């Protein structure tokens, strides 16, 4: 429990990190550093995106699987680390 | 040789029913090959015959039906919570979350993902992977590349169709002054008395992103022929209608006109053009129509025009003699002058500040054969203006009144509208009745348009370029307004373009001036000659000379001239031979030639090409009165 907290704190202290969200496989946000409405929005939208991406990767090659997803936009970068049961989402403002 | 077969039937047997029967073939004529005829033919060997083994294909075009889309929003509700947890209750959700956090699996997963994520974050922080190197060089390269390779092109972005059943012509277009996201289109039926009874009078304002439905409908009393946004206040539009009235709308107040001009004081014919004027109040405008008047209005008081001008060239304010106007031109940088294009093919330049109506009309420019549908000054060089009429488009200089300084060739279809590009001084666009849009660049090519795009099958009646020069809208006879985007080559200003355009225009203007001067000279000569001959004639008439003597004299004169010419030619030939010999000598000596040798020979040459000869004699051509010398 403490290690989890420590890990998250370490991530939060990195340069440019705006927020962290952890969601479970059903899209329910477990932990978040952002406000509730943003969390819910990110959770809902990114959950669907990860599902779609994963199925795409597996369709192209059934042996393959999604390990990491980065969505870079004009204002920031959304990084999603997916797992079987949980997703870790970090929103960062890149170095420039 | 005729082969004849006579079929005989008895008259008494006519009309009898036919009994068909089968019999073997009978040989009626047998043509044997005639060996003598073979002599008249040539055997062809080898014979070249093309053969191809390929499947037969045919070309088909399919266009899908127009897809109507509507924007709708979706309301998201939080979901995914297990059945026993009510998402609204804070306690339950918190409890659920705490439970999950205590899970072993959760902790392990997060540790793993955490390390992975940290790695990516640090990557991001270390270096920006999308940084552009050599951005400026890239741009330069791109510029050069586009200059050399890119073909000018126009792409259709959107098509706005008239939603009514009965299609009317899109007679006028106006872009929204700020932001350019809206386009106002005036629809009317310009053919005299051909407007069907149930034709709608509405005109529309379209948002260029949404071609399915117009943003606002303007409902005038009579269809609008021309429509303009007020450049100062983007909510006000002024429209000239088919029955001669002017009306103005405020888009904040809806589709009904805010005020209309009084019928008694309006035009008697459709108002073909309205233009907003530059004034402190931003409410002045003027309009023109085929009834021969130009009226000035203040939109705050539409009951009667503030000023009136009758386009009567004899300056007598006579409406019957007036020229009928179809287009107007006003440039905010020159507020006292304006120009009117007439149906008679004349452009009338007028001065607004003249004291008496007689002085209002300053001068006219003639040269077109048909009504002048478009008239616009060059936004960069107001001294030059473009007129579009009949089958040509012409560019005029204000000082030269006899003819235009540049013109396009005569096209097959009538030109309906045209305008300058607001970003490039040498580019202008025209639309024709066969549905093509032409983009002309007079610095690049004068004979043909730089770009010619067939926009639609029906006639294109109006054209307007957006202020950024990139987008153009053209309206067609069936009410379709097409939005086109032109390639960057035609809307980015090239280096030195302004100076080149000025130089070209000045050169053409000078040419016209010289031609004018020459013409004047010739006219003077003619006049003096005719006067002289009149004197001569009168003298001879005194001496009772008959026509035969005149003929004889004419013959004598003619032969004299011919002989003089012949002598001159012979003299030239000799001179030339001498000159040529000298030239040849020089050629051998140092392989180069000076023009001074030419002057010695006094050759009446029209063009001489002397090449620097290097070792061998290359093409040296002399064009001189049908004598051609070439090695």
UniProtKB/TrEMBL annotation, chain A:
Query: Which organism does this sequence originate in?
Result: Scleropages formosus
The molecule here is called Dynein light chain roadblock
Q: Highest lineage ranks of the organism?
A: Eukaryota, Metazoa, Chordata, Craniata, Vertebrata
Q: What gene name does this entry carry?
A: DYNLRB1
- Which GO biological process entries does UniProt record here? microtubule-based movement
- What role does it play? Acts as one of several non-catalytic accessory components of the cytoplasmic dynein 1 complex that are thought to be involved in linking dynein to cargos and to adapter proteins that regulate dynein function. Cytoplasmic dynein 1 acts as a motor for the intracellular retrograde motility of vesicles and organelles along microtubules.
User: What SUPFAM superfamilies does the record point to?
Assistant: Roadblock/LC7 domain
Coarsely, its chief localization is cytoplasm
Which Pfam families does the record match to this protein?
Robl_LC7
Q: Which GO terms describe its cellular component?
A: cytoplasm; cytoplasmic dynein complex; microtubule
User: Where does this protein reside within or beyond the cell?
Assistant: Cytoplasm, Cytoskeleton
Task: List the signal peptide residues.
Answer: none
Xref: PANTHER family? DYNEIN LIGHT CHAIN ROADBLOCK
Question: GO molecular function terms here?
Answer: dynein intermediate chain binding
Query: Which part of the chain is the Roadblock/LAMTOR2 domain?
Result: 4-92
UniProtKB/TrEMBL annotation, chain B:
Q: Which UniProt keywords apply?
A: Cell projection, Cilium, Cytoplasm, Cytoskeleton, Dynein, Microtubule, Motor protein, Repeat, WD repeat
User: InterPro entries from the entry?
Assistant: Dynein_IC, WD40/YVTN_repeat-like_dom_sf, WD40_repeat_dom_sf, WD40_rpt
Name of the protein in its database record: Dynein axonemal intermediate chain 2
Q: Which SMART domains does UniProt cross-reference here?
A: WD40
Metal-binding as a keyword of this entry, yes or no, is no
Task: Establish whether keyword Cytoplasm is in the entry.
Answer: yes
- Any single GO BP term: cilium movement
Protein location: Cytoplasm, Cytoskeleton, Cilium axoneme
Question: Per its UniProt record, what Pfam families does this chain match?
Answer: WD40
* Molecular function GO terms recorded: dynein heavy chain binding; dynein light chain binding
């Amino acid at each position: 429990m403490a290690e989890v907290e420590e890990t998250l704190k370490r991530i939060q202290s990195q340069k440019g990190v705006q927020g962290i969200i952890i969601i479970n496989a059903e899209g329910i946000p477990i932990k978040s550093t952002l406000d509730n409405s943003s969390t819910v929005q990110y959770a809902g939208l990114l959950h669907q995106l990860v599902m779609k991406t994963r199925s795409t990767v597996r369709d192209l090659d059934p042996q393959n699987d999604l390990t990491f997803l980065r969505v870079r936009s004009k204002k920031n970068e959304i990084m999603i680390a997916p797992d079987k049961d949980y997703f870790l989402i970090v929103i960062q403002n890149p170095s420039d | 040789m005729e082969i004849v077969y006579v079929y005989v039937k008895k008259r008494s047997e006519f009309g009898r029913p036919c009994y068909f029967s089968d019999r073997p073939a009978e040989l009626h004529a047998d043509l044997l090959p005639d060996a003598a005829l073979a002599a008249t033919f040539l055997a062809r060997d080898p014979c070249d015959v093309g053969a191809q083994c390929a499947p037969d294909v045919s070309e088909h075009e399919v266009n899908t039906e127009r897809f109507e889309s509507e924007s709708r929003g979706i309301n998201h509700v939080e979901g995914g919570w297990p059945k026993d947890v009510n998402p609204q209750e804070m306690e339950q959700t918190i409890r659920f979350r705490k439970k999950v956090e205590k899970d072993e699996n959760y902790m392990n997963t997060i540790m793993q993902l955490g390390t992975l994520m940290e790695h990516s974050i640090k990557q991001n922080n270390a270096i920006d992977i999308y940084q552009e190197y050599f951005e400026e060089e890239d741009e330069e390269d791109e510029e050069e590349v586009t200059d050399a390779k890119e073909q000018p092109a126009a792409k259709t972005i959107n098509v706005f169709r008239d939603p009514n059943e009965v299609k009317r012509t899109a007679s006028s277009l106006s872009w929204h002054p700020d932001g350019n996201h809206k386009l106002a289109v005036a629809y009317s039926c310009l053919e005299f008395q051909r407007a069907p009874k149930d034709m709608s009078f509405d005109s529309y304002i379209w948002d260029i992103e949404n071609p399915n439905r117009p943003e606002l409908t303007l409902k005038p009393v009579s269809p609008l022929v021309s429509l303009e946004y007020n450049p100062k206040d983007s909510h006000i539009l002024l429209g000239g209608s088919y029955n001669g009235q002017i009306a103005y709308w405020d888009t904040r107040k809806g589709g009904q006109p805010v005020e209309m001009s009084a019928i008694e004081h309006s035009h008697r014919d459709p108002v073909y053009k309205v233009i907003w004027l530059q004034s402190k109040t931003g409410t002045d405008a003027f309009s023109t129509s085929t009834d021969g008047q130009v009226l000035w209005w203040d939109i705050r008081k539409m009951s009667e025009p503030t000023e009136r001008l009758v386009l009567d060239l004899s300056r007598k304010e006579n409406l019957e003699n007036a020229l009928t106007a179809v287009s107007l031109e006003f440039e905010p940088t020159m507020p006292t002058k304006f120009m009117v294009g007439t149906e008679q093919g004349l452009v009338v330049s007028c001065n607004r500040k003249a004291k008496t109506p007689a002085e209002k009309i300053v001068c006219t420019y003639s040269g077109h054969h048909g009504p002048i549908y478009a008239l616009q000054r060059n936004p960069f060089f107001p001294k030059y203006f473009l007129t579009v009429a009949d089958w040509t488009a012409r560019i005029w200089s204000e000082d030269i009144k006899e003819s235009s300084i540049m013109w396009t060739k005569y096209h097959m279809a009538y030109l309906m509208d045209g305008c300058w590009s607001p970003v490039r001084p040498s580019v202008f666009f025209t639309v024709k009745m066969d549905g093509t849009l032409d983009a002309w660049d007079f610095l690049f090519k004068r004979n043909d348009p730089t770009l010619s795009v067939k926009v639609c099958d029906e006639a294109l009646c109006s054209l307007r370029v957006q202020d950024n020069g990139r987008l153009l809208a053209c309206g067609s006879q069936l009410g379709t307004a097409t939005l086109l985007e032109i390639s960057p080559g035609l809307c980015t200003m090239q280096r030195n373009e302004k100076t080149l355009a000025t130089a070209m225009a000045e050169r053409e203007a000078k040419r016209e001036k010289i031609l004018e001067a020459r013409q004047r000279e010739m006219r003077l000569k003619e006049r003096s000659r005719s006067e002289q001959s009149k004197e001569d004639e009168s003298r001879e008439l005194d001496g009772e000379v008959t026509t035969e003597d005149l003929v004889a004299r004419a013959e004598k004169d003619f032969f004299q001239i011919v002989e003089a010419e012949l002598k001159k030619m012979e003299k030239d030939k000799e001179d030339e031979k001498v000159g040529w010999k000298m030239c040849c000598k020089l050629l051998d000596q140092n392989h180069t030639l000076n023009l001074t040798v030419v002057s010695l020979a006094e050759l009446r040459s029209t063009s001489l090409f002397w090449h620097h000869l290097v070792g061998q004699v290359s093409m040296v051509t002399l064009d001189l009165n049908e004598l051609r010398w070439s090695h």
